[in-house]
Specification:
Helices cover 48% and strands 10% of the residues. It is α/β, with parallel strands linked by helices and 336 residues long. The chain has 3 domains: 167 residues, serine acetyltransferase, domain 1; 92 residues, UDP N-Acetylglucosamine Acyltransferase, domain 1, CATH 2.160.10; 31 residues, no CATH class. The strands form 3 sheets. The chain has a 5-stranded parallel β-sheet. Strands 3-6-9-12-14 form a 5-stranded parallel β-sheet.
Length: 336
């Protein structure tokens, strides 16, 4: 019996042959695994779950900032108990996801070893949380001091999408360092989908980092960003070329993204490519395309375009110009 509003499928001799489709899909999977030289499918024990990691990240954000990112019942008198309970659950779930990654990454059965290794990773990660919270405090403060529209640090933390992206990055980067790059990448993509800010978990970013507005920012895997750096929307810290090996496969993990030194400001739409160095206290103007290093204290801007200013109103509606001019002061008319 079908649900209301659901159309009935075709009869058994209708439009599709499920057995044939299943067999053909099985053949495609087999061919893929053979081409990837897998003796057995990676992830036979399972695969890290994006849905579960969304829950983990929600809990970790709440544990780091319980009064602002936690549930409404959290108050000063119960926040320590809330943090302890939330961390216990979040770290247990994260341990399970890291274990699945470790099982995915090996061909042979390594259940006990993966469990122990995942335990070590999560233990080290947990010990890093106070340091990460201190880093995030510096990021919140940098946003408050750097944006005249920010009325409080609480507003920055609750409202700014860049803070969500930076929280995810700080946590993902630590997991990346500890040997869980797949879980870290899933975490970074959770933030990417929610904010439009794409920061690879391998990128190294110093304290007091601020992304103003943020949509469209891309920071590559091997980028190094110094302290007190400010980026605006649409900035790309990308790679200029992708070297390959003798078989034509792209070489992995080579340094190929920019190094941004301390106290640099990069304005909206700037594209900075390759393993170049942007010297400290430099300012990179909007929409600049840069593939060469610049020294400290540089000011890089686009060449001024040649342009002519004309009045669209006067061309398209001269009667409107004259009526406005007649009804307003001479100063207003002069400025039209």
């Amino acid at each position: 019996m079908t649900d209301e509003g659901e159309s009935k499928g075709p009869t058994p001799d209708g439009c599709w042959d499920i057995d044939r489709l299943a067999a053909e899909l099985g053949a495609v999977r087999s061919q893929w695994r053979q081409e990837q030289q897998h003796h057995a499918e990676y992830g036979a024990e399972g695969f890290p779950s994006r849905a579960n990691l969304v829950k983990v990240m929600r809990s970790l954000c709440a544990a780091l900032f319980p009064l602002r990112l936690g549930p409404s019942f959290v108050r000063v008198h119960n926040e320590d108990a809330f943090v302890a309970q939330t961390l216990q659950s979040a770290l247990d779930r994260l341990h399970a996801q890291v274990r699945l990654e470790l099982l995915y990454a090996v061909q042979d059965s390594a259940g006990p070893d993966a469990n122990v290794q995942a335990g070590r990773i999560i233990s080290d990660f947990a010990q890093s949380l106070p340091t990460i919270r201190t880093l995030l405090d510096s990021d919140v403060k940098a946003a408050f001091l750097g944006d005249p529209a920010a009325r409080s640090v609480d507003e920055v933390l609750i409202c700014y999408p860049s803070m969500l992206a930076i929280i995810h990055h700080r946590l993902a980067h630590r997991l990346y360092e500890l040997g869980a790059p797949l879980v870290a990448r899933i975490i970074s993509e959770i933030a990417h989908s929610q904010t439009g800010i794409d920061i690879h978990p391998g990128a190294r970013i110093g304290h007091s980092f601020f992304i103003d507005h943020g949509t469209g920012v891309v920071i590559g895997e091997t980028a190094i960003v110094g302290e007190r750096v400010r980026l605006y929307q649409g900035v790309t810290l990308g790679a200029r070329s992708f070297p390959s090996d003798e078989k034509g496969a792209l070489a992995k993990a080579l340094p190929r993204h920019p190094i941004i030194e301390d106290d640099v400001v990069i304005y909206a739409g700037a594209t900075i490519l390759g393993r170049i160095i942007i010297g400290s206290k430099s300012v990179i103007g909007g929409n600049v395309w840069l593939t060469d290093s610049v020294p400290a204290n540089s000011n890089v801007r686009q060449a001024k375009a040649q342009y002519e200013v004309t009045s669209r109103i006067e061309v398209s509606a001269p009667h409107r110009v004259h009526s406005l001019a007649e009804g307003q002061s001479g100063a207003f008319a002069d400025n039209i």
